[in-house]
Amino acid sequence: MRDTSKHQGLxxxxxxxxxxxxxxxxxxxxxxxKIPRHLFIDSSFESHAYQDKAFPIAADQTISMPYTVAFxxxxxxxxxxxxxxxxxTGSGYQTAVLLELKAEVYSIERQRELFxxxxxxxxxxxxxxxxFVFGDGYKGLPEQAPFxxxxxxxxxxxxxxxxxxxxxxxxxxxxxxxxxxQIMTLFIRKSSxxxxxHELGDFAFVxxxxxxx
Length: 213
Ligand code: SAH
Known about the structure:
The chain is an alpha/beta fold. Helix content is 29%, strand content 25%. It has a domain at 60-203: Rossmann fold, CATH 3.40.50. The strands form two sheets. Strands 5-4-3-6-7-8-9 form a seven-stranded mixed sheet. A two-stranded antiparallel sheet has the order 1-2. The site of S-adenosyl-L-homocysteine has 23 residues, from β2, α4 and β4.
């Protein structure tokens, strides 16, 4: 694993690109400047790692575009010490951003290969979520609920009820909803029964899968 000053320069440029696209939270831009994204993807894509693009990772999945990761992180408004549930660990890049924001992260992945690979890889970089879970994100993580924030990084055909019910009052669920493309949807829990809903534009994610392979 190598990280060089050339990579650092490319990361600084990527942070500038994201800030021009509307990412204004300095903590998120600093995370982008710090996290070696080229180590999260296959070495054949290394030279492109700091473009604002998605790439294939293992198990037919993708690492999300940096803009998408930054947008989701900014919209969640993560504060230090908050309990965050992430659905779709994937490469672990979004997980690393949440950890740079000093969240206590619980991350669920349903592809065993990615779960194994990323749960070994992230700690090597010094990124330690509270828990990596191999399981089905549709169920959330009832034993650790409630959460301040829940982020879904796969396209969900519908909003899973357990995720809404595992939010604290005042908590936020950010989930891309739809089939081929998704509408980024933010739910803010106002009371035990009331949720405020905001639709925040179109995105494209790999599907949130419902059955075990
Ligand atoms: N944030 C990751 C994302 C990737 S792609 C990154 O940037 O690398 C979406 C991830 O969600 C994939 O790894 C996929 O396997 C996972 N996923 C899909 N359906 C899921 C489910 N029901 N529960 C948990 N993870 C799921």
